[in-house]
């Protein structure tokens, strides 16, 4: 009996952004492990899917991996979803896969891990930013303290666009940190796929002025793309 672990991408805002295959997987699997069961319960309710939900977040990833291996060994089909977007992209999921894949490769667990691709804030932002994204660097969330200054210096001199995730209450801090680097072009992609989706771009100073004039636009979720001016 061969078990299956499906890593399923889910919407980043608009609940219609889910693939037919993701819906079929969530319907057909034996159990869904979710970063936050309350968030996933809303998605399941929208599509009238009734399924056993178990929590697996960053803190429990290692512990729950053993439980999932035991399920795969008896041939179960397990699905994993994070709160939004593609699991493993600045989300729990990659550690789970890295803990389970060796058992499969060593042959101690007869199972398959499959990707059910779909939305990600990273690709959604790049698709509408209007920058040359043939090649880019993705760094996820910047460290808050240790390593932050080094990361900022690297971003400022990067020849490739750098994409990062940032929470709304740290956007202004980030722009202030980048304000010395006038040769940077910043794109803020906010609330992607939601009612208030917007893209604004400019130098760090221009964006600080924009946000000061429109404080309501500091709400929501942000992808930040930092690119050298010469590449725009
Ligand atoms: N795994 C997710 C993905 O594939 O996009 C990312 C999860 S990470 C914990 C959450 C961050 O992604 C947010 O803080 C924000 O930076 C970004 N994000 C998620 N949804 C977004 C949206 N609708 N609009 C803009 N940024 C978003």
Any descriptors?
23% strand; 232 residues; Cobalt-precorrin-4 Transmethylase, domain 1; 35% helix; Methyltransferase, Cobalt-precorrin-4 Transmethylase, Domain 2; alpha/beta
User: Are any ligands bound, and if so which?
Assistant: S-adenosylmethionine
If classified by CATH, what would the architecture of the largest domain be? 3-Layer(aba) Sandwich
CATH H-level homologous superfamily name of the largest domain: Tetrapyrrole methylase, N-terminal domain
Q: Count of DSSP E strands?
A: 10
How many alpha or pi helices? 8
User: Sheet with the most strands?
Assistant: 5 strands, parallel
Low-confidence stretches: none
Structure description:
This protein is of the alpha/beta class and 232 residues long. It has 2 domains: 3-116, 3-Layer(aba) Sandwich (Cobalt-precorrin-4 Transmethylase, domain 1), CATH 3.40.1010; 121-231, Tetrapyrrole methylase, C-terminal domain (Methyltransferase, Cobalt-precorrin-4 Transmethylase, Domain 2). 35% of the residues lie in helices and 23% in strands. It has 8 helices and 10 strands. The chain has a 5-stranded parallel β-sheet, sandwiched between helices. Strands 6-7-10-8-9 form a 5-stranded mixed β-sheet, with helices on both faces. Helix 6 (148-157) links the parallel strand 6 (137-141) and strand 7 (162-166). Helix 3 packs parallel to helix 4 and helix 7 (171-178) runs antiparallel to helix 8. S-adenosylmethionine (SAM) binds at residues 12-13, 82, 84-86, 89-91, 120-122, 165-167, 189, 191-194, 221-223.
């Amino acid at each position: 009996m061969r078990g299956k672990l499906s890593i399923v991408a889910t919407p980043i805002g608009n609940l219609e952004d889910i693939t037919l295959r993701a819906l079929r997987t969530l319907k057909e699997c034996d159990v869904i492990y979710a970063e936050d069961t309350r968030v996933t319960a809303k998605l399941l309710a929208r599509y009238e899917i009734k399924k056993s939900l178990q929590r697996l977040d960053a803190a429990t990833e290692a512990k729950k991996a053993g439980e999932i291996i035991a399920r795969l060994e008896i041939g179960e089909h397990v699905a994993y979803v994070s709160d939004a977007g593609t699991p493993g992209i600045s989300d729990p999921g990659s550690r789970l896969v890295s803990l389970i894949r060796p058992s499969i490769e060593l042959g101690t667990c007869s199972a398959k891990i499959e990707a059910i691709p779909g939305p990600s804030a990273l690709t959604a932002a790049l698709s509408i930013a209007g920058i040359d994204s043939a090649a880019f660097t993705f760094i996820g969330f910047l460290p808050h303290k240790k390593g932050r200054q080094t990361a900022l210096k690297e971003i400022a001199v990067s020849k490739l666009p750098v994409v990062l995730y940032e929470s709304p209450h740290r956007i202004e801090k980030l722009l202030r940190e980048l304000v010395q680097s006038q040769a940077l072009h910043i794109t803020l992609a906010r609330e992607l796929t939601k009612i208030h989706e917007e893209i604004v771009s400019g130098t760090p100073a221009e964006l600080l002025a924009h946000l000061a004039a429109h404080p309501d636009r500091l709400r929501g979720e942000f992808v930040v793309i930092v690119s050298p001016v010469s590449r725009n």
